[in-house]
Amino acid sequence: MQLEQLIRERRSIRKYNNLPVSQDLIIKLLQQAERLCSYDGEARWRYVYVGTPEARERLADYMVEKLQDNKIVKLVLSKVTDALHKRVLEVPASLIVIAKTDSNPIIHDQTYGAVCRIMQNLQLLGWEERIGMVWITDPMIQNERFYKRIGLQEGERFVGIVQMGYFDKAPKGRSRTPAERNWTEFVWNER
Which residues form a coiled coil (predicted)? Predict the structure, then answer.
């Protein structure tokens, strides 16, 4: 498949079929994704694989835990939290992505940028294998308790969760914003 076509056709997939995604295939795709991303020095990130039924159950619990602390939310939105919990359980595999932080803002941003490129590459490479993915960064899960539960350590930042699985049907594409709409020309004014 041509790269432009691949980029245009890839979709975020949130509904997966029951086929398991091999951990070995995920590792292979990650290795390819990292090779396609240039960065200086050693890798400053890590991945936490969530693929067993027990691990998916724990992740689902952690993702809805903060919501369930609120008694009003627990009473009023219990069906919503139950549906979210069930949906996370149905995801064949998830990858929690964690990056090292740095006091130097340039290194900090370069690390985050490299990890984002790797995750985009992973999604494109997965699409070629008919593995759909969605990158989750929902504010609901961005809290200290969740970070502690997933093993985030001092000097690290949560980048997101990539949910993945084989799918039967891809959603239709949305219209894209033309690049010209976000285009500004720099004009030098000497004073």
Answer: none
